[in-house]
Amino acid sequence: MEFTLLFLATTIAMLVAWRGQRPLALGLFGAVLIACVATYLHHATDTLKLSF
Amino acid sequence: MTQTRAITLNALSLYAVALVLAAAYAAQFILQELPCPLCLLQRILFAALAVGPILNIRFGPRPSHYAMSLLAAVAGAVASTRQVLLHIMPGDAGYGSALLGYHYYTWALLGFITAIVLVAAILLFDHQFEENKAVLPATGGAFAQTAVWLVIALTAVNVVTTLLECGFGACADNPLVYELLKHAA
After folding, report:
1. ipTM of the complex
2. How buried is residue B72: exposed, middle or buried, by Cβ count under 10 Å (0-12/13-18/19+)?
3. Which of the given ranges, A31-35, B85-89, B98-102, B103-107, has the highest pLDDT on average?
4. E strands, B45-174, where?
5. Touching check for A34 and chain B: CB below 8 Å?
6. pLDDT for B135 beyond 90
7. How many CA atoms lie within 13 A of B90 on its CB side?
8. pTM (2 d.p.)
9. Does B153 score more than 70 pLDDT?
């Protein structure tokens, strides 16, 4: 579900960048990026099995 | 580099992002390979790469817009590096099919690194940042407008297909079926 919301938020950020106010687009982009990093950290909890 | 030329390059970058998103769909629908959570995150970050060029086309090139693309590209490179490392063990077949010898996440890593290099390269041209609104066509002309709407449409379609794949819960680590379609059947 979080990925659906991230795609939705990115779509909205693009639409605002194209049709809306610039500061709002910047803010939305920042929120999307922070949410992406949080999602990445949430999913990156498994131990990496590296070969070296 | 003039503003007009910079905007044309930004439009071209949007077509490149659209191509990446379309190629991901080709793997999803032609090869019947559903994207994993990390794959979806990389797709989102490719889409996020497009916000900067859209702002450049609408408001004119600004360093802050390029910085947005750089941040998205670095985040994408981190996510794709993580997935490369997850499958680096000898004997690991990797996730999904390989295209020209590389898996999609390896191509994604190369794509994000290419984006970082290209954004850094275009930032070298200061002339594009000089105010000259008379030169700028309103919203970049048909070539740029088509690029913007194409990338927005592809991202919007991803909202629907990701909802179908993951449903309303957490996305499966190794998705094999569309969750919402499974429940509907």
Report:
1. 0.90
2. buried
3. A31-35
4. 98-99, 102-103
5. no
6. no
7. 2
8. 0.90
9. yes
pLDDT over 60 at A52, yes or no: no
What mean pLDDT is reported for chain B?
Answer: 90
Q: Which residues neighbour B45 within 8 Å (Cβ) at sequence distance 6 or greater?
A: A36, B72, B73, B75, B76, B79, B112
Question: Measured between alpha carbons, how far is B43 from B80 in angstroms, rounded to an integer?
Answer: 10
List the structure tokens of B75.
Answer: 């985040």
B48 close contact with A: CB closer than 8 A = yes
Closest by CA to B47, choosing from B17, B13, B80, B24, is B17
CB pairs under 8 A between A and B: 104
Q: Which of A1, A17, A33 sits opposite B166 (nearest CB)?
A: A1
What is the reported pLDDT for A33? 97
Residue A49 to chain B, least CA–CA distance (Å) = 7
Contact B48 A49 (CB under 8 A): no
Cα distance between residue B104 and residue B123, in whole Å: 28
Cα–Cα dist B37/B2, whole Å: 40
Higher pLDDT, B152 or B177: B152
Q: Is A12 on the interface with B (CB under 8 A)?
A: no
Is B68's CB within 8 Å of A29's CB? yes
